Amino acid sequence: MIKTLIKNIATMPLFYSYLINKPCLRIIMYHGISPSDNINPNDFESHLKELNKYFNIQPLSKACDLFYNNYDDKRPLISLTFDDGLKNNFSYVTPLLEKYKTPATFFLCSDLLSGDDMLWNHEMLLRLRYLKKSQGWINFSKHNFNNLTPKEFVKSCKSKSYSTVINLMQIIRKLSKEYIPTSIEKERYHIMSTKQAQNLPDLIEIGSHTKDHPILDKIENDKIIMEQVIDSKYILQDTLNRKITTFCYPNGNHNKFTDDLVIQNYQYAVTTIQGFCSLNDSPFQIPRIAAIKDTKSMMFSLLKPMRH
């Protein structure tokens, strides 16, 4: 009961006045939004209605420009970011952003815009589920993946080297060559096409999410890292005729080498670290707040600064 009361208070204008003198920038991290996702379009529309009441919503680059240059407006700053460039962001998110005239930032992978592409981790998960259902489990003993669920398997791959993941994907694709994604899987995991990306309205800023979403600090070859960080920016600029100034680290992973490349080629970069952005945070390692399905719970999460 007390928790519910607090959540209700969190949506009252008087309580939001408490935010005005707090020098922090809030950046919400979204991924997929569709009828079959945890956060569905109705949830997102509810988010937009509440957020627009209390916040100055800006695309990431403008929000950071304002924040790092002594922002003093009465309405606290916030930015909405969407990772991966999923097709459902085009189909469901974009119309709602236009309806409420709300800017946002979409992070796209430059080499995954055919309209039928998936992130490697999504594709691996779906193919492993197919194999487990149709053939039982597979022996990956030399990779220490036995007795793991498909979801645990994919999570474990994120700590493996880039070359190992590529090799595993080749094996899994060969074993599951008859796999065809269902309509719900397509809705949840397919990435938007180049044409759809080109048709995104101007209120949506585009940022780079690398070429094809590798875990950057697991890549053994510096040349490949440079291509992922730098080439992705220029491919997106040329393909979409947009200026690309923001970057999002896949899975939030980075190291000194990737940091240096990002600093040399972008103005701002976001991580998956949970928290509010303070003036002490590097503009190239900006924390974010994971979106929550329930509107009141999410609004409450925007009140109390998180530690990171």
Residue share in helices? 40-55%
CATH topology of the largest domain: TIM Barrel
Strand content: 5-15%
The mean pLDDT is 90
Distance between the termini: 29 Å
Number of helices: 13
What is the CATH architecture assignment of the largest domain? Alpha-Beta Barrel
**Would you tell me the structural class of the helices and strands?**
alpha/beta
CATH superfamily of the largest domain: Glycoside hydrolase/deacetylase
The CATH class assignment of the largest domain is Alpha Beta
Report on this model:
With 308 residues, the protein is of the alpha/beta class. The chain folds into 2 domains: 2-13 and 22-48 and 55-88 and 101-116 and 193-301, Glycoside hydrolase/deacetylase (TIM Barrel, Alpha-Beta Barrel), CATH 3.20.20.370; 120-180. Helices cover 43% and strands 14% of the residues. It contains 13 helices and 9 strands. It has helices spanning 2-9, 13-16, 41-54, 60-67, 87-99, 120-135, 150-157, 162-175, 183-189, 194-198, 222-240, 256-265, 295-301; strands at 24-30, 56-57, 77-83, 104-108, 204-208, 246-248, 268-274, 277-278, 286-290. Strands 1, 2, 3, 4, 5, 6, 7, 8 and 9 form a 9-stranded mixed sheet that branches. Helix 12 links the parallel strand 6 and strand 7 (268-274). Helix 6 (120-135) packs antiparallel against helix 7, helix 6 (120-135) crosses helix 8 and helix 11 runs parallel beside helix 12. The radius of gyration is 20 Å and the shape is globular. The relative contact order is 0.17. The model is unreliable at 11-21 (pLDDT under 50).
